[in-house]
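worker-03 picked up job from queue 'complexes'. Input manifest follows; two sequence lines, order preserved.
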Amino acid sequence: MSEKEKIELLEEIMDLDLGTLHIDDTLKDYDEWDSLTVLTFISEIDSRFGKKISGEEIKKFVTVADAIAVME
Amino acid sequence: MQMRFKGKAITSMLGILPETVGLFDDEVGNYSFPPKQTLRLKKVMGFNQHRLAKDSTTVSDLALEGMKYILAKGWIKKEEIGAVVVATLCPDYFVPHISNIIHGECGLSEDVICMDIPQGCCGFLLGLMQSFMLLEHMNSRKVVLINGDVLSHKVSKRDRNDFPLIGDAATISIVENDAEAEEIYFELNTDGSRREALIIPAGAFRTPSNAETAVMHDLGDGNFRSLDNMHMDGSGVFNFVQTEVPPMIEHAFKEAGKTVDDIDCFLFHQPNRFMLQKLAEKANLPFDKLPMNLVENYGNPSGASIPLTAILNYKDELLKEKKMCCLSAFGSGLTWGAMFMEIGKLGHCEMIETEL
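worker-03 finished. Artifact:
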């Protein structure tokens, strides 16, 4: 998956229009970075990458780069 | 633990709903989040409306309404009752128990066994297990199994994690011996090390309620609640369900010697639509046989979810025919279980509303 595809997946998870997010954006600046996004993130990482991730780990992400780093 | 029960059946089911309906749209302003984000939950989680008992209403009030109804309608005679089993998280008092209140108010005979089982999401499965074990010793007498909760009283109205999904309700199931019944397979698992994922921190003996435990705090996620309120670790519970339940279902199928095609309906605990969809996807279960609509209609009433889902979706069919059901519940404890059981040709199956 390219960086662009990973950002698009994050946009899909956060229910944002494509092209909204940039790699250095701070996640907390978006209202969409909420509890529902955390659940969707857990579910997508599990189904697409076969990986378990906890809510605590996700809440430590600061930037878009942190979030997409686990997408592999 | 795995168990098999022979010659046991549910013969009637009643749902008891408080008449007050809380609309999710009206509650959006209670939360500290932008309304647009809160409304996103409506679509994904299936939040729409939930039933709320009046502040003064207890589980015994709802259950008594139901007991009076089934006794008056002749679903069961007092002298046929051998035991009253109540599974709930919401006792009227620490002492006496709700089953004793039911016993006294209904004027049941002195040889009736009364027991309360403090249990949340798995309350129906645990209640059935206990009922089946009692029936081994009861010949023709029957068990009245009551499930119910009024958890809306214990959840903060400013907590978007917990309040929108909670609903108040009770159910009564009549359980009895039936030599013709198919064998029932049941398995139940527990992980007490993760017990704090669902907790009401204060109000019992460890931390009695006081002025301090009633203070509302933003606990760092924008939701306001006090130590007297129930709290669920949403992502922890979601991960627990996704990790533990699919392999348990697979294992249970194997042990019961059944396949997905043998099952007419999957009657699962109803946390919210999102969690059920993800669970069904992961466990490869057909969406059309797995109702996910309890939360949007009535809310999640904890242990009463499974019987209420059966009544809501299959009321008329369950009167006419037998269905092979896969029951599964998962939640506080943490506890997760599955049961394969034929349910149907019920004597009675109804939903009633009360002013309570």
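worker-03 released lock.
The mean pLDDT of chain B is 96.
Chain B touches chain A at residues 33-34, 36-37, 40-41, 44-45, 160-161, 221, 233-236, 238-239, 242-243, 274, 278, 281-282 (CB under 8 Å).
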